[in-house]
């Protein structure tokens, strides 16, 4: 499908005709966060990504906003404290509709690497850093009530703490929307193929539109490289001799249906360093993650059958194997973590963020966590403060577009569209918050937009139309994989794809 997209034409015109303060290369959560904070600080900002926004690691995470329990074992109390602070900010102010608190259980079996007293001490410290009252041991009976499929044979005890869960791709899109609302020019499917320079300083980039091959020059006073797994490839556009800054760790996740609802997630202790998770997510069960060195082309990343088998086998430590049959898997996906440094075991590597200055002044950002993306964005802008003329950088958490309490958003939807089923209202309130009424507005003239795109998913036709109008969706895949939950539910069949493509055809410029 190749539909006319006037908003792309306008963005291309702005990118080629304006001079920007900052060009951000990479539209994952870090790049989108940098663009959002920079635009809100009053800078003229351009954001480009060679694929769709959030299409790599930022839509392939464990969907967790958390302090990182295992980082205590690695001795990184500072990172845990910072992550907890950011988790609270996201839950309370930045995106309360997208980031939701969730209890976590840590089952201890006969072969566990920890004793109950050790786990209890660790959870007490973790919860103290989180300013939570949870943090101790609970009975197997209480744990089973929260997780009906929890295995109890060999269960010696169970720890309890709290963290949060999110829809990672939509959190990324909310930051892109925040940047655009503050005046940034954003364009996906726009690859940086060369950097421009004057007098030995980077002054922008040549960008190629992946849809038609057209190239344009973007001029900017400063350039940030936030391309995740491609960070070193972009660094070599500035300096062909640039040495690798990081290595990549492959993480695979598997999604299955849940027979009965879980009110808590599971943290599975694989050894004294590595953990994996079983998380109730969007009414399904999300399992993972693996952690292995990846040395191939990031564009070729896939979840293999061996990866899926590993995830299912590791989950069987604590989850009823009857739930973990291969034929029940709805979807699987793989993502890459960027780990600063070139040596050591990937599972034991610290999730630090590396800021690198190239010889012509480009700032590259490598590593970090989804949870702390906002802090990383502020640190990146702090490093550019002098050349951007930033006298003051606001660090207080600022709500993203749509930020609202779930109950309030769902109530407003119910008043305007009482015919919507409660699960759909709840789903829309979670994904869009206060913007849900904007998503549903065209349904006032076309009730067909309130219909589900698939009987087994709460996503409706109005979401696909909105994705093309206001969320920069170019293809059905953009809608299915990153703007709705259809692909992860495994219901992106030909009929659904055809319906989404039909909704994208009359797309107009984003609001």
Search tags:
alpha+beta; 17 helices; FAD/NAD(P)-binding domain; eight-stranded mixed β-sheet; 18 strands; 34% helix; D-Amino Acid Oxidase, Chain A, domain 2
Please give a structural write-up.
There is one protein chain. The chain has 511 residues and is α+β, with helices and mostly antiparallel strands. It folds into three domains: 168 residues, FAD/NAD(P)-binding domain (3-Layer(bba) Sandwich), CATH 3.50.50.60; 158 residues, D-Amino Acid Oxidase, Chain A, domain 2; 99 residues, no CATH class. The protein is built from 17 helices and 18 strands. Strands 3, 4, 5, 6, 11, 12, 13, 14, 15 and 16 form a ten-stranded mixed sheet that branches. Strands 1, 2, 7, 8, 9, 10, 17 and 18 form an eight-stranded mixed sheet that branches. The mean pLDDT is 93.
Short synopsis of the structure:
The chain has 17 helices and 18 strands. It has helices at residues 6-17, 29-40, 69-73, 77-94, 116-130, 140-146, 168-181, 231-238, 305-315, 373-383, 385-388, 406-416, 422-432, 436-440, 461-470, 476-483, 494-504; strands at residues 19-25, 45-48, 64-65, 100-109, 136-138, 155-165, 185-187, 190-198, 201-209, 215-225, 246-257, 265-269, 275-281, 284-288, 292-294, 331-340, 353-357, 363-367.
Can you lay out the helices and strands and say which pair or pack?
Elements: H1 6-17, E1 19-25, H2 29-40, E2 45-48, E3 64-65, H3 69-73, H4 77-94, E4 100-109, H5 116-130, E5 136-138, H6 140-146, E6 155-165, H7 168-181, E7 185-187, E8 190-198, E9 201-209, E10 215-225, H8 231-238, E11 246-257, E12 265-269, E13 275-281, E14 284-288, E15 292-294, H9 305-315, E16 331-340, E17 353-357, E18 363-367, H10 373-383, H11 385-388, H12 406-416, H13 422-432, H14 436-440, H15 461-470, H16 476-483, H17 494-504
Parallel strand pairs: 1-2, 1-10, 2-7, 4-12, 10-18
Antiparallel strand pairs: 3-6, 4-6, 5-6, 8-9, 9-10, 11-14, 11-15, 11-16, 12-13, 13-14, 17-18
Helix pairs in contact: 2-7, 2-10, 12-13, 15-16, 15-17, 16-17
């Amino acid at each position: 499908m190749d539909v006319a997209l006037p908003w792309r034409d306008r963005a291309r015109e702005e990118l080629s005709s304006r001079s920007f303060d900052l060009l951000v290369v990479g539209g994952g959560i870090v790049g989108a966060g940098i663009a959002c904070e920079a635009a809100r600080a009053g800078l003229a900002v351009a954001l480009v990504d060679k694929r769709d926004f959030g299409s790599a690691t930022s839509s392939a995470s464990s969907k967790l906003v958390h302090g990182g329990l295992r980082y205590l074992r690695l001795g990184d109390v500072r990172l845990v404290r910072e992550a907890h602070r950011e988790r609270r900010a996201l839950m309370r102010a930045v995106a309360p509709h997208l980031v939701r608190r969730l209890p976590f259980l840590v089952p201890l079996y006969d072969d566990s690497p920890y004793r109950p007293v050790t786990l209890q001490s660790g959870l007490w410290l973790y919860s103290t850093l989180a300013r939570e009252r949870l943090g101790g041991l609970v009975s197997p009976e209480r744990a089973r009530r929260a997780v009906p499929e929890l295995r109890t044979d060999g269960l010696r005890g169970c720890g309890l703490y709290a963290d949060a869960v999110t829809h990672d791709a939509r959190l990324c899109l909310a930051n892109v929307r925040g940047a655009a609302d503050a005046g940034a020019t954003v364009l996906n499917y726009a690859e940086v193929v060369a950097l421009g320079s004057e007098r030995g300083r980077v002054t922008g980039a040549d960008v190629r539109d992946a849809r038609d091959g057209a190239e344009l020059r973007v001029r900017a006073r400063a350039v940030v490289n936030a391309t995740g797994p491609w960070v070193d490839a972009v660094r070599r556009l500035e300096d062909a001799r640039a040495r690798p800054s990081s290595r990549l760790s492959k993480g695979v996740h598997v999604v299955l249906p849940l027979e009965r609802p879980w009110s808590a997630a599971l943290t599975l202790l694989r050894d004294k360093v590595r953990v994996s998770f079983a998380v109730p997510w969007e009414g399904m069960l999300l399992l993972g993650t693996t952690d292995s060195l990846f040395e191939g082309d990031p564009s070729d990343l896939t979840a293999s059958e061996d990866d899926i088998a590993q995830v299912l086998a590791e989950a069987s430590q604590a989850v009823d194997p009857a739930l973990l049959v291969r034929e029940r898997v709805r979807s699987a996906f793989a993502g890459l973590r960027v780990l600063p440094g070139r040596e050591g075991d990937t599972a034991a590597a610290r999730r630090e963020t590396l800021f690198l200055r190239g010889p012509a002044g480009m700032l590259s950002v490598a590593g970090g966590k989804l949870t702390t993306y906002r802090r990383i964005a502020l640190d990146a802008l702090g490093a550019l403060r002098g050349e951007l003329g930033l006298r003051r950088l606001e660090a207080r958490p600022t709500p993203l577009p749509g930020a609202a309490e779930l109950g309030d958003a769902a109530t407003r939807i119910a008043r305007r569209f009482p015919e919507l089923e409660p699960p759909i209202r709840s789903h829309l309130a979670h994904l869009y918050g206060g913007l849900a009424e904007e998503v549903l507005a065209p349904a006032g003239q076309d009730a067909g937009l309130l219909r589900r795109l698939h009987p087994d998913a709460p996503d409706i036709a109005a979401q696909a139309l909105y994705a093309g109008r206001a969320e920069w969706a170019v293809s059905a895949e953009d809608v299915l994989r990153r703007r709705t939950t259809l692909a992860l539910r495994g219901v992106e069949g030909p009929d659904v794809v055809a319906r989404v493509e039909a909704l994208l055809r009359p797309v107009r410029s984003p609001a």
